[in-house]
Amino acid sequence: MRIVRRLLLVALLVAIAYPSYLAFRIWWQSRHDEVHHADAIVVMGAAQYDGKPSPVLKARLDQAAYLYDQELAPVVIVTGGKQPGDEFTEAGVGRDYLSDHGVPRDRIYSEDEGRTTLESLEGVSDIARAHDINSALLVSDPLHSERIKRMASDLGFDETYASWASYERLNRSRATKFKELLHEVGALMTYEILGR
Q: Reading across the β-sheet that carries 76-79, which strands appear in turn?
């Protein structure tokens, strides 16, 4: 009986410690905006509404346009497919928005099939191999940064950096950010354990 209790105690400690460790990694990365030169700026997709970027997608695209204007990368890769019933892809909306905001169209590559973070980054990896892109400056939300960096590294990028769109522009509450943190802990745990 004593051995069973010890095993249960160890299992309980692991069940608490592992998510806590992931939460710390996610929080730590979300505090560090890694503005850095790279081969490409990669914008993670988010919702679009009838061809117009949602506030979240617009914030990411504005950050990518800023980074491009700072000459931190020669190309931008926009990502994201479309949800059932949608006419436009997230990547297509992103490409049009960036083009309208000063990024030359021939400097924008599109990954327009992915419906999850991993699917989008797998598509980005294919684009990267075709264009000799070895490093990526990833643009998303602060709490998404740890997971996308981990996935991009696993997909073969030599160097990955995350420069996020500020939450201040989206006016998110602490409760919303806490829910996002819990979501990211679950998503990163799923990726690290199940690879998806």
A: 108-111, 76-79, 40-43, 135-139, 159-162
Q: What are the residue ranges of helices labelled H in 1-160?
A: 2-30, 55-69, 90-100, 117-130, 145-154
Q: What is the DSSP string of 133-191?
A: --EEEEES-GGGHHHHHHHHHHTT-SEEEE-PPPGGGTT--HHHHHHHHHHHHHHHHHH
Strands 76-79 and 40-43: parallel
The pTM (predicted TM-score) of the whole model is 0.91
Res. 10: pLDDT tops 80: no
Question: How much is the average pLDDT of 127-145?
Answer: 97
Q: Angle, to 10 degrees, between the axis of helix 145-154 and the axis of helix 174-194?
A: 20
3-state SS, residue 39: coil
